[in-house]
Amino acid sequence: MTALAFLAGAVIACTAPTVHDGDTLRCGQDRIRLFGVDAPEVRRGQKAAEPLAYEARDHLHRLTRRRVGCRVVEQDRYGRHVARCWSDATPDINAAMIRSGLTTEWRRYSKGAYATAQEDARRAGRGFWAPGAPPRRLR
User: Fold this and answer.
1) pTM above the 0.85 mark?
2) Would you say 42 and 49 are in contact if contact means Cβ atoms under 8 Å apart?
3) pLDDT surpassing 80 at residue 4
4) Do residues 63 and 38 touch, judged by C-beta distance below 8 A?
5) Spatial contact of 64 and 24, defined as CB atoms under 8 Å apart
């Protein structure tokens, strides 16, 4: 991890980061967790993927194919930078992920910062809000 990125408010920038799942990416050596976003988990070992996990991962991949910037909010218990991110595709990757309906707002941390984006997804019936979609536990 870079020394600068340890500081809240630091900006991490890269081109075409590696996407792990719907709320985690890597810019060089920096692991970044999207602030306020809760994505379904992809398969890990013997544990099956949660519904829409790969669709969420693929959507984040599409949003981050070019230049990406992230402003660090804090560090999580796994040493990742928790950040608000933007890209050439959208001025707010976090909100775009929630608005897609493929992820949900993690209100425990976001304190409602993405409530409008989640309501947009719900009203439009996207992702977890689509008729017949698998249930999603909201945090």
Assistant:
1) yes
2) yes
3) no
4) no
5) no
